[in-house]
Amino acid sequence: MTKTESKDMMSKISEAERNGSKTKIIDDKYDYDPYDQPAPENATSYADSLTILLKFSLGTGILAMPRSFHNAGYVVGFIGTMVIGFLTTYTIHMIMSAEYELCKRKRVPNMSYPETMEAAFEYGPRKMRKFKNAAWFMCYIFLLIYQTGTSCIYLVFIADNLKEELDLFFGGSTDIRMVIVYLLIPLILISMVRNLKLISPLASLGHIFVMICFSIIFYYIFRDIPNIAERKPVGTMQGIPLFFGTVLFAMEAIGSVMPVKNEMAKPEQFTSRFGVINMAMVPIVLLYTVIGLFGYLQYGDKTKGSITLNMPQHNLFGHTVKLLLAASVYINYAISNYVIYDLVWPCLTSKMEKNSHKLSYEYCVRIAIVLITFGFSIAIPNLELFISFLGSLCLVNLGIFFPVILQTLTFWDEFRGPRFYTFLIKNIFLIIIAILGFVIGVGRSSIEIYNTVILPSFS
């Protein structure tokens, strides 16, 4: 849509408002259907998109699920994981329905998450329009923090697993921060790769490693399960906020949802009843619940931040799981940093167009990304607390709060009478959940980080 067309559309909306119309949706939006537009080059099929989304969702978060059940107890953990899984699926549908509606109004085939937030304010109630740039910026910043935090978690995960192997091989106890220092050069080298196609073969090999490791993990968590009476059905009040943040981080692949949908040949298949998102979330929720529940039942109070750290130390299978998953996550770290680069570099491109040192600056940005993740990992080398903090900080906002605001502004004038009040009460309830989850989750995680990581450093 050109700027002239956009201004014309906004003038029509304003005229409709002055005439007392309750709807801001103008008639000619129905002439445009985003799903009827030409598919992108190299568009993905339904099966491809389902596979990609499943791969994105099976990250390091799933390995932290047993520890989250330890924090919540097996009853609260089981019910809570199911509820969060349903809530996650529902809020993704909220984002997708709002994006589809806003694409019709703007007459564009698709938008990114920050662009969708901006459009919701732009086409929402008049008093909210002045906040459209702030909405884009907030969404962008939280996505950037989330992706950077994900890279930090990958780095701490690699260091945790290598530390176990180094301790066993050399004896004694290696400082995890020193392991992170040893990893700095290899991380910089792999992050210098400018073309993801060069990493693709390694990523495929990494997926094979993951399948092998999960087979071994399943063998150990289902073997000789102890009596359930020995485990806590309900955790502590201090542990439940950590559970909430961990499960949100583990399940919420919010950074990949819209890109996957936007690359589909038939994007309408993403949100249909048996669409990609529903068919992906069912096995994801079940798998996370099974690993969390049986991992906790197997290891109880000895459950660690990643289930890999509970694997037998003096056993070939235990070594295999730790080393293969560390190698797989090393590849994922490079891909995660590539996403961060894609978020940051466009903001600098306008200043680099005619710069003869553009390539040098690009490499400097890539190195800076590694150094930032390195710094945060050195500061908080605790996998469990890092995951919980990031989930409560970013994914409560990206996965619950922002989708509710998005839907509320987009469909503000779509409902009347009892339907409007039902719509409003439901969204207010979700906003309250998001605010409580954010305040309690971030607060509790911050206290644990201070007591566990920061305070011992000064004692």
Describe the structure in your own words.
The structure is a single chain. This protein is an all-alpha fold. The N and C termini lie far apart (60 Å). It is built from 15 helices and no strands. It is found in: Membrane. Keywords: Membrane, Transmembrane, Transmembrane helix. GO terms for molecular function: L-amino acid transmembrane transporter activity. Residues 45-443 form the Amino acid transporter transmembrane domain.
Average pLDDT for all residues: 86
Tally of DSSP β-strands: 0
The secondary-structure element order is HHHHHHHHHHHHHHH
Helix content: over 70%
Low confidence ranges:
1-9, 12-26
Radius of gyration from the alpha-carbon trace, in angstroms: 23 Å
Strand content: under 5%
Describe the largest sheet.
none
Q: Helix count?
A: 15
Task: State the end-to-end CA separation.
Answer: 60 Å
The shape is globular
Structural class: mainly alpha
